[in-house]
Specification:
- With 223 residues, the chain is of the alpha/beta class.
- The protein has one domain (7-184): Rossmann fold (3-Layer(aba) Sandwich).
- Helix content is 42%, strand content 14%.
- The protein has eleven helices and six strands.
- The chain has a six-stranded parallel sheet with strand order 3-2-1-4-5-6, sandwiched between helices.
- 36% of the residues are buried.
Length: 223
């Protein structure tokens, strides 16, 4: 389905979802002309221990966080899925759902640098474009030099400078985009909540209200 607005795909534990997630999605959607950004909370992540907060809570927090933004939608397929949540499986399902619609997998530079540890990572490019979001001043040349050889070769071969490629083909390119630097982490937010501190303005107010009502993150910092 060429010449159609691509679908952005943003995965993560969202434990909890915070404003840096939302801002990344907003800026990339506007910059790249994405039709939607689909937030997909991870069920059981392959590279870390299972989150200490159940998937149903993390899913609901994303729903609350994105409410009212017509660019954003949430997808519960990884929460419903049994077993480990592999991005390859999710993109395969999305490709079956959307046919030739261009898909854009959105991720930070740190996640991209570890891509060779992902399940069937090379085949991800058959299913989606990869968009690397980085902060201002981030040394992309240094990132490239530090990549494992197979990933560095893929990066150099697939790197595109014109986002118009996203509407021409359904998958296969790598784009880099600078986004607003927001030094916010879910780990830090969980720590603040466990200590009784208020992370207001780091997390949307409806999400903070949900956390309070459900007594989340009070004594643990898992996941």
């Amino acid at each position: 389905m060429v010449n159609a607005a691509p679908l952005g795909v943003l995965g993560g534990t969202f434990n909890p979802v915070h404003v840096a997630h939302l801002r990344l999605a907003q800026e990339l959607a506007q910059d790249l002309g994405l039709g939607k950004v689909r937030f997909i909370p991870t069920g059981i992540p392959p590279h870390r221990t299972a989150p200490g907060v159940e998937g149903r809570h993390r899913l609901e927090m994303v729903r609350l966080a994105i409410a009212g933004n017509p660019l954003f939608e949430v997808d519960d397929r990884e929460i419903r899925r049994q077993g480990i949540s592999y991005t390859f499986d999710t993109l395969t399902e999305l490709r079956a759902d959307f046919g030739g619609l261009p898909l854009c997998l959105l991720m930070g530079a740190d996640a991209f640098s570890a891509l060779t540890t992902w399940h069937r990572w090379m085949e991800i490019f058959d299913l989606a474009h990869v968009v690397i979001a980085h902060r201002p001043g981030y040394p992309l040349d240094e990132m490239q030099a530090a990549l494992p050889a197979p990933l560095r070769q893929a990066y150099l071969r697939r790197l595109a400078t014109d986002s118009g490629v996203l509407r021409i083909v359904a998958a296969g390119s790598i784009l880099t985009r600078q986004i607003t630097a927001l030094d916010i982490s879910a780990t830090r937010i969980r720590g603040q909540l466990a200590q009784g501190a208020n992370p207001r303005y780091l997390v949307p107010d409806p999400v903070l209200d949900y956390i309070d009502r459900n007594y989340l993150y009070k004594e643990n910092d898992a996941g």
